[in-house]
User: What shape does this take?
Amino acid sequence: MKTEQYDAIVVGAGHNGLATGCYLAKSGLKVLIVERNDYIGGAAVSRELYSGWTYSNCSYVCSLLRPEVVRDLDLARHGLQVIPYESGATFMSNGDHFAYYSDHDALRREIARHSKKDVDAYDRYSKFVTKQCRFIKPLLLRTPPDPVRFRPRDIQELLYLGKRFHDLGARDMADTLRFYTMSVGEFLDEFFESEVIKAHLAGSGIIGTGLGVYSPGTAYVLLHHYMGEVDGSIGAWGFTRGGMGGVSKALGKAFEASGGTIKAGSALDRFLIKNGKVEGVVLENGDTYTANTVVSNMDVRRTFLNHVEDGELPGDFVKAVKRFKIRGSSGKINIALDGAPTFNNIPGTANFLRGDLHASESLDELERAYDAWKEGRWSEDPYFDMLIPTHVDPTMTPPGKHMMTLFIQYAPYELANGESWDGPNRDAFADTVIDKIARYSPDFKDLILHKEVRTPWDIEREVGLTEGNIFQGELTFDQLLFNRPVPGYADYRSPIRGLYLCGSSAHPGGGVMAAPGANAAREVLSDLGRKGFGRAA
Amino acid sequence: MTGHRPNLKDGLPVRRGLVETPFDRHLRPFSLAEDWMPWAGFVSARRFETVEAEYFAIRNQATLFDISPMHKYAITGRDALAVVNRLVTRNAAKLGDNRVGYTVWCDEDGSVIDDGTLFRFSETEFQLCCQEPQYSWLHDIAWGFDVTIEDQSDTIAGLALQGPTSFAVLKEAGFDGVENLKPFGIMDVASGLKISRTGFTGDLGYELWVEASKADELWDRLWPAGQNYGLRPIGGEALDMARIEAGFIAARVDFQPIHDAQRPSRGRTPFELGLDWLVDFEKGHFNGRRALLEAQRRGPRTLLVGLEIEGHKPARDAFVYHGKKKEAGHVTSALWSPTCKRNLALAELRAPYGVSVKDDLWVEIYHPKEGKWEKVMAQAKIAERPFFKNKRRSATPPGLF
Assistant: This one.
């Protein structure tokens, strides 16, 4: 057992914890990051589980990572490289497909193949969504105001928010309010008539969410997936060279270059709290580290319900944390492939095969997939987001071989009848997905060399995300802005003095964004009366 | 000195109009964009698909850029070294055999005529590779020496194979020995085919120089080998992005070649281009030496510098100011660098700016915003070049990606 003293301790080396650590260390603080796993990255990791094949085990594509953070922390110099991918597609059971070209004119022609009317509708849709992105983007790296406290900074932020909202113009203000609360299904129905086009676009509205395409609040989830960018191209997504672990690796290097210390394989037992003030952390192995500032990268539930004793927290806070929605809804499969799979009626050179691929062709089908979730089953006809990053990234497999990453929805955390996910159910879940892909790719099954199947249970156990919820809490309007994670505590602080949240449970939510991490660091530095640095401080 | 005229040995009969390079028939099918441009009388691709995808292929995979239109001159004969050393500002005697050196050459006033790469195969065998035509200038320089100058621009074709998997592609194609080739080295790999470890991207990369008649053979060997390494053809636009990141200057963009300038004031010395290291006063007489000695004593009138600019709007064609008020120069090349994640530029500053006054620099950037021009005054800092640095560029043996 040892005891060491630091200026600040971050619990969890997820990308947000690392980002917070970087900013704090850069300001001159002596910072320690403790991480339960033997590797850093949380849900942004690249691991070789089959010799020669590297997987992006959890998160798999990059867009939301704030460019301000990348620049502040000089992540490019520390090896981060994000390569945008082109296009995407939805395969259809009649042998046709819908290709979502990134080239605007090519896309218009493709849409016309499915519906002439939807061609211009797409432009209208796209303009609306981009407008919403412009509205929300500047809010990502700001601490939300508390509308009931009326401190000068709350009033200032409310005015800022009000002004931006007002700048949308009268018509869009009304539409914006509707948009934030409506379902992605209704939203798309207002624009499009083609089922496959709606289904292709709707995926972004349900990913990571325990809601269906017709559940209110899912339209915002779609926006959440659009508001990122790659080099200024709004809504673009890219592959991180070497897998998503590349993000964490670069952050880790930046952190260590600023003098920070990472201790992996160091699981937290509890926060040290005295008289409502945090004093450090105690690890499971008994080691104690003291600091007056402790920042938790864990989700809000885990942080306060598992590692803080009940008596230390106000009752209404505990109640609010307990009702915070953080429901498991998805699974993940990573597959090592012996070659590039071919898809029915599509030439291997088609550029959209380098993008995100799907096989859900109507909103009805997606809604039925959600029915299974409600009943405690995985969807028998699941939605998936399927990518083969090795069409672009030469570093993850031997030449000519490929790696496929699959995000699958829906997979509930609790199976009906209290059944276990471990064992036959995990295999059966994987078979459901693989059989569905094989309907569109005749050679797919024969190419499988190895697979990593991750149920909500696996994600919770390995990454520490409650219920395996990828966003550390759902992105519905009741859990956004000043309500994230709970009302009164959207400023990264907690009822315990010196204890902060920096994970995706905090504003602006999930995705490999590093915004909560950067924002939390700014609040910590402000409490310490330290001048930060650069723009984000 | 023998006093007789250099032997003239011309190439093929002159073809008329804009012509195809020897690789054209292989490249053309890849052109989905149909976006071509003229380059030294040849048809050259500006892009094949999207500039973005081609740019990222340079920094992530492997790319082929057809450099056949480059001007290539063979300088051979007993006095080849003497002629070359009279031409260029650096000392070609210090360049080893089978080595390549970047160089510039000047007129009598010390103004740069062009820059390019000098290939030294031996003391009697050189090749000069450059952007601007130099045939008659080379003859002027060679007057009185025992050399032959041959314009090989039409007879030698070239492919730049650049990117992190470029070595893997060569290996797959069976070019043995390439693993030992160091940066700026040249090797003969087959009859009529040379590979040099050079390029314009600042990344791992090679240039393949082949007799035009053997271009098909080379293509057929290279292209299939690249299939599992992400090999794709690229156009000049993507390459230009990589060359700015690499900090390389381009003739007529970052400096005005003096033979192409009406106004003598547009001439720039190597010092003014930040190329002091290329000038060797100890090697004996060379063209422009006296003027350059004087220029060195006087100090640069202007200086080409690298800038890192705040924000993300590329500072193309922007003016540079000191203290936001006093005009200090202008940007010559600029881009948002997707790899460095920095807003970069090359700029020509007027002394003392960039020379003794290096702070408080601002760039006035104009950019269109939905039908309205907006103006930003963005702070700029002088930054070291190359902007993009990666160990894989010089690792020997090189990595596979």
In short: Confidence is low (pLDDT under 50) at residues 1-5 of chain B. Residues 1-290 of chain B form a domain with the Gyrase A; domain 2 fold (CATH 3.30.1360.120).
